[in-house]
Write a structure and sequence with these properties.
By secondary structure, this protein is of the alpha/beta class. The chain has four helices and five strands, in the order ααβββαβαβ. It comes from Leptothoe spongobia TAU-MAC 1115.
């Protein structure tokens, strides 16, 4: 008795699924990576800083902040009146003399480039405002 081979000429073609599964896994991996990138998940293990409030909540309740605005034309505003940066120095220093635990709150227009906002923040810190916050919505 001879052993019969499994692969006789039966006329039924064989389908090799391995190449097809390789292609499907590649496409699936591509879409998973793209969807992770679009949803904001970090793929490369970079840990981004989280926004935290640098202001103590008890201090906020005790003292009223000094609010300074920055309009869309780049001009600083105090008490709804335009003011130059040099004129902010005595205002900020006087506020901190009266309220040593107080803080300065900067409200900038959302259409401004961040470079303008950062410049005013740096100017406020150099004046003497060690507790300067940026208000965001």
């Amino acid at each position: 008795m001879g052993l019969r081979s499994r692969h006789q000429n039966s006329g039924v073609p064989e389908v090799n699924l391995v190449p097809m599964m390789d292609v499907l896994m590649t496409v699936l991996t591509f879409f998973v990576i793209i969807s992770m990138e679009l949803s904001g998940v970090q793929i490369f293990g970079v840990s981004l800083p989280q926004a935290v409030s640098g202001v103590d909540e008890e201090v906020v309740e005790k003292t009223e902040p000094l609010v300074i605005g920055l309009r869309e034309d780049g001009k600083a505003v105090y008490n709804d009146e335009p003011v130059v940066t040099a004129a902010l120095a005595p205002i900020v220093q006087g506020y901190f003399a009266e309220n040593p635990e107080g803080f300065v709150l900067l409200k900038a227009d959302r259409t401004l480039p961040y470079a303008d906002v950062a410049k005013l923040l740096a100017d406020l810190r150099s004046i003497g405002g060690k507790r300067v916050s940026l208000a965001v919505e």
